[in-house]
Amino acid sequence: MDQRFKVGVIGATGMVGQRYVTLLENHPWFEVVVVAASAHSAGKTYAESVNGRWKMETPVPDAVKDLVLMDVKDVDKIAAQVDFVFSAVSMSKDEIRAIEEEYAKTETPVVSNNSAHRWTPDVPMIVPEINPDHSEIIKYQRERLGTKRGFIAVKPNCSIQSYTPALSAWKKFEPTQVIATTYQAISGAGKTLEDAPEIVGNVIPYISGEEAKSENEPLKIWGHVDDERKEIVSAESPVITSQCLRVPVLYGHTAAAFVNFKQNPTKEELIEALEDYRGVPQELGLPSAPKQFIQYMQQDDRPQVRYDVNFENGMGISIGRLRPDKIFDWKFIGLSHNTSRGAAGGAILCAELLKEQGYITKK
To answer: Where in the sequence is the active site (predicted)?
Structure first.
């Protein structure tokens, strides 16, 4: 008998939703049994709904192509068929906050790719290798929601994955100040190069809301659960300032980062800390976890999107060009896959962690 968890993907027809169903094909723990989108698409098969706008490199998975799309707002009907849902809905932030809480209150856990709940004080924003303990806040969220098993957990912004893991590996050296400039792929806007002629041969120096996310979300990840206040309190340092640019690349967010440390690490110590960095996903051998979370590349011209974005099936982080700086202590280049590690893959890994921690259970 198939003991896999029954999973719904709400917002299944967009680029991140497509990545979810692709990554979940043949997943050892999770089986997609419900796909949902707007009322306009409801009633069509999944294959029909994405015909002509399928953006993945592989075909629509056989397991989902004949599933009939449900209306994402039919919360009770969807909740009755699944153990939990992945959320990639495209709505206003207020609408997303409301509908994700509505699912949670049906005792259906929600693991969300959306930003709407990232700053809800009792919602954990998890990178499983960095802050798995933030799931402890769920007990207080359940108190607020009045649920026994329902809750919301989110993954952070895709672009911070290209430099936050390195800074986490270097925590013992006490980073104090960071400049991070990100060069972000067009798929981060839910588009392909064909969908976005404005990006071809161009760089767009503005992505709405992105710089605030880049500067503040790592601090929540490095924060702690405050049992008295029943919320996650952000760390106060390092201070991060950023600029975010959209570039003509399909997948892969690159960061150019500069760091000051309170300690005085050597280059050898910094590289060793990167390569040795492990987390709970590696210890538990979670299905989506990269065996090597961070790789350091010695070549002068790496990491490159063309060669390195799919490191560890897109779930690993590539760091290179670590060198002293004339103003800051050190500078480096980071690269992450924005729809795998940065979006759907990161959320799936988060769900695997929450399942192993006992927060996601079968209904």
So the answer is: 158 (acyl-thioester intermediate), 253 (proton acceptor)
Domains of the chain: 5-157+344-356 (3.40.50.720), 159-337 (3.30.360.10)
pLDDT more than 90, % of the chain: 97
Find, among 349, 277, 361, the residue nearest to 128 by Cα. Answer: 349
Q: Where are any strands of DSSP class E within 2-97?
A: 5-10, 30-37, 70-71, 84-87
Q: Is 267 left (phi over 0), alpha (psi -120 to 50) or beta?
A: alpha
Question: pLDDT tens digits for 267-281?
Answer: 999 999 999 999 999
Average pLDDT, the chain: 97
Residue positions annotated with a catalytic role: 158, 253
The band of 2, judged by pLDDT with boundaries at 50, 70 and 90, is low
CA distances from 296 to 163, 165, 341 (A): 12, 12, 17
Q: What is the crossing angle of helices 345-356 and 15-23, to 10°?
A: 50
Query: How far apart, in whole angstroms, are the C-alpha atoms of residue 171 and residue 75?
Result: 42
What does the block give as tokens for 271? 């590289």
What contacts 338, CB < 8 A, 6 or more positions away?
158, 159, 161, 184, 185, 187, 188, 251, 252, 253
> In this predicted structure, what is the pLDDT of residue 3?
87
The amino acid present at 360, given as its one-letter code, is I
**Residue 37, φ and ψ in degrees, nearest 5:** -155, -160
Number of Cβ within a 10 Å radius of residue 2: 6
Kind and range of the H or E element at 15?
helix 15-23
Is the CA virtual torsion 220, 221, 222, 224 positive or negative? positive
SS3 307: helix
Of the candidates 277, 317, 325, 279, the one whose C-alpha atom is nearest the C-alpha of residue 297 is 317
What pLDDT is recorded for position 1?
44
Helix, strand, coil distribution of the chain in percent, nearest 5: 35, 25, 45
| Alpha helices (H) in 240-298, listed in sequence order | 267-276, 280-284
Cα 201 off chain centre by: 28
pLDDT tens digits for range 101-131: 999 999 999 999 999 999 999 999 999 999 9
The answer to whether 66 and 33 are in contact (CB under 8 A) is: no
